[in-house]
Amino acid sequence: MTSREDQPVAGRPWLQVENVTRPTMTVYPPKGYNTGAAVIVFPGGGYRVLAIDLEGTEVCDWLTSIGVTCVLLKYRVPGSGPHWDSLRNARVIPRIHTALQDAQRTVGLLRHQAGEWNIDPNKIGVLGFSAGGHLVAAVSTHRQRIYAPVDQADAQRCQPDFAITLYPGHMSANYKADLSRLNPTIRVTGQTPPTFLLHAQDDPVDPVEFSLLYQAALMKAKVPVEMHVFAEGGHAFGLRPTRFPITKWPALVETWLGTIGMIPAK
User: Fold this and answer.
1) pLDDT tens digits for the chain (266 residues)?
2) CA–CA separation, 170 vs 113, rounded Å?
3) Are strands 178-182 and 172-176 parallel, antiparallel or unpaired?
4) Nearest to residue 117, comparing CAs of 193, 53, 26, 52?
């Protein structure tokens, strides 16, 4: 684990985890009232590292405070999904999307053990940032597992019931070279879960077109989608408040979760 003091967010360093060869899921129960809803969190990091606090544990602190069980997935990196190879100066698409395997396995395990963790098996969502946002879209649009079943947990449905995608990456057909078409591996259908999207127009890493392409596909498939675009905010801000209005997004998500019936409406 490395402290990134060279790239502070809201004046504070953040922690990155490297070389994850064995995925793990950590369950954080809600503080006080339990809504029955659960959210699996996928930190970002370009499928190279994981921003484990900025886009992980800090998210769980918020979710558990509103009565939601949080499951932090430490998925395999590096090279576990589409990523930019700086040495080759090229986008690389791995033969096997191992991060998606980890995400599908986690959804199944959570449903299989929902009773033990006091979770409603029909209120399991996913939330991810950047590469983790791409992973949210991937697990939302793959109804079938991409690995051979291991046990009874893999008999459970592996799609989430709702999805929260924040400044997702790798959503176009050819990264920044073609922002006119959605990534063909993201196959949106009427069975894709209701989705919340958030992006800053000035994002220098993952252009706002990534979210706009996904929103258009969701709308075409008549999937309920809520989209928020802010003029400023950049990339990789997590939940840390700054002077930009976009960092108030948790309140927007909380309201949205109430409107789709995952938590009590305020």
Assistant:
1) 898 888 878 888 878 999 999 999 999 999 989 999 999 999 999 898 999 999 999 999 999 999 999 999 999 999 777 877 777 777 777 888 899 999 999 999 999 999 999 999 999 999 999 999 999 999 999 999 999 999 999 999 999 999 999 999 999 877 777 888 999 999 999 999 999 999 999 999 999 999 999 999 999 999 999 999 999 999 999 999 999 999 999 999 999 999 999 999 87
2) 32
3) antiparallel
4) 26
The three-state (H, E, C) secondary structure of the chain, written as one string: CEEEEEEEECCEEEEEEECECCCEEEEECCCCCCCCCEEEEECCCCCCEEECHHHHHHHHHHHHHCCCEEEEEECCECCCCCEEECCCCEEECCCCCHHHHHHHHHHHHHHHCCCCCCCCCCCEEEEEECHHHHHHHHHHHCCCCCCCCCCHHHHCCCCCCEEEEECCCCCEEEEECEEEEECCCCCCCCCCCCEEEEEECCCCCCCCHHHHHHHHHHHHCCCCEEEEEECCCCCCCCCCCCCCHHHHHHHHHHHHHHHCCCCCCC
May I ask the CATH class of domain 2-259? alpha beta
Total residue length of the chain: 266
**pTM exceeding the 0.90 threshold for the entire prediction:** yes
Q: Tell me if 132 sits within 8 A of 42, measured CB to CB.
A: yes
Domain ranges of the chain: 2-259
Rounded CA-CA distance 242/11 in Å is 9
Tokens representing 237 are 């801000």
Q: Facing residues of 208 across strands?
A: none
Tokens 């994850």 belong to which residue? 20
